[in-house]
Design brief:
This protein has 274 residues and is an alpha/beta fold. Helices cover 46% and strands 14% of the residues. A seven-stranded mixed β-sheet has the order 1-3-2-4-5-6-7, with helices on both faces. The protein has a single domain, classed as Alpha/Beta hydrolase fold, catalytic domain (Rossmann fold).
């Protein structure tokens, strides 16, 4: 995996994982705050996102294994702190469950524990409509054409829907589109892997093994139109260590970009305390 590294190489390490559709640049504001607080920050392009390898497998359990290998290489002797948003949050949950000894603390953004997500979505039919894009992305051929059409207009539309009233700016979208242009259709493999019963069984086995024993901070925007804030309810049962959940008013899916000062301070305070 390719990654951006910032800060003193001897400082405590923080690994930041982006989601879809996103890139490591998403962690720019948080990186500056973390480095200022004395941390070293590593933000990889997830497998399937150029310049990282586009070769599979790109199902969540396989990607977690690759992430754990990376963490072992960059911090072989000391546990790291980890931040995950969207797909990065899913991977963070699984990594914390599988190898808790490799992590000192975690900050998880916008995607609650997958087991509580799976349970709550049954009781919240509105979420099925919000999540319809996931079923779309599992289809062959059509999603690639839709995403590439009109200079990735669908990607900009997703950001607009998921975070109402927010835009990261034209320059940000240009860099994101460049990554997707070089990566497609590999980023869709994360969604397509969910059609495999074997992948689902393996992911559930990882998540059900034990409650997460790593101190974890969870942040979710109350105006998130990708994953409704109600889906976070009850997830504390899947954490045996200290767990704190924060709901951010007037905030959508990309909480760390929409409310950087508040989110960054909360994450740094959490990491300094653990």
């Amino acid at each position: 995996m390719s990654y951006v590294s910032t800060g003193d190489v001897d400082a405590p390490s923080v690994v930041c994982l982006h989601g879809f559709p996103d890139i490591p640049r998403t962690w720019g504001p948080l990186t500056n705050t973390l480095v200022g607080a004395g941390f070293r920050v590593m933000s990889p392009w997830l497998p399937g996102y150029a310049p990282s390898s586009l070769e599979g497998p790109l199902d969540p359990p396989a990607v977690v294994r690759r992430l754990l290998t990376l963490i072992g290489e960059v911090s072989p002797d000391a546990p790291v702190r980890i931040v995950g948003h969207d797909w990065g949050a899913v991977l963070t949950h699984a990594a914390l469950s599988q190898r808790p000894e490799r992590f000192r603390a975690a900050a998880i953004l916008s995607i609650p524990h997958p087991l509580v997500l799976e349970r709550n979505v049954v009781e919240l039919p509105r979420q099925s409509l919000r999540s319809s894009y996931m079923a779309l992305f599992q289809l062959p051929v059509i999603p690639e054409k839709l995403i590439r059409a009109r200079d990735f207009a669908f990607i900009e539309w997703l950001w607009k829907v998921w975070s109402p009233g927010f835009s990261p700016g034209a320059d940000y979208f240009d860099e994101l589109k460049q990554c997707l242009r070089a990566s497609m259709p590999a980023p869709l493999s994360y969604y397509r892997s969910l059609r495999s019963p074997k992948v689902i069984r393996e992911l559930r086995a990882i998540l059900q093994s034990d409650p997460i024993s790593v101190p974890s901070l969870y942040l979710h925007g109350e105006r998130d139109r990708c994953i409704g804030v109600e889906l976070m309810n009850g997830q504390e049962r899947y954490f045996s260590a200290l767990f704190e959940a924060v709901r951010l008013t007037e905030t959508g899916h990309f909480v760390h970009l929409e409310r950087p000062a508040e989110v960054n301070r909360a994450i740094v305070d959490w990491f300094l305390a653990h």
